[in-house]
Amino acid sequence: xxxxxxxxxxxxxxxxxxxxxxxxxxxxxxxxxxxxxxxxxxxxxxxxxxxxxxxxxxxxxxxxxxxxxxxxxxxxxxxxxxxxxxxxxxxxxxxxxxxxxxxxxxxxxxxxxxxxxxxxxxxxxxxxxxxxxxxxxxxxxxxxxxxxxxxxxxxxxxxxxxxxxxxxxxxxxxxxxxxxxxxxxxxxxxxxxxxxx
Length: 197
What we know:
By secondary structure, the protein is α/β, with parallel strands linked by helices. Helix content is 28%, strand content 27%.
């Protein structure tokens, strides 16, 4: 059971369901974190529904997928919730955190950094798996045994690595144009060396 308090920042009717944006204080990140959730009609009526978690690409936020993809209509028809976390910590005040579009703020790569100064707050893997998913399945009508994961670009890399590192946790995994070989591309090289040494 999660003890974290969810603060509802905004809610909107959307294709018969509800598009919501939340914030909470993360013990893993040690900062406030934002995420968005689309709940289909079935969930609003109290039924626990399956969900897919979308991991966005570089420079995106918890709003990007929900405002640009238009996936809510089909998700409502299928009775599936959509979850979209932010892509990184924000406001850690780490020197250089906003100097580049492909590293630091907006570029968490969905991993737990081991190198300082990033290791203190850049704990996206632990945040997603040990904090956000349990929080959402505890506080919202989402069935924790029926969650898939997908993502695009950096988020595609995140979806693949999280599903492979935690077999059996997700019911499905998909990736659109993922950074699938990060040690052989500039974005991945910067992230791997900067976050993991």
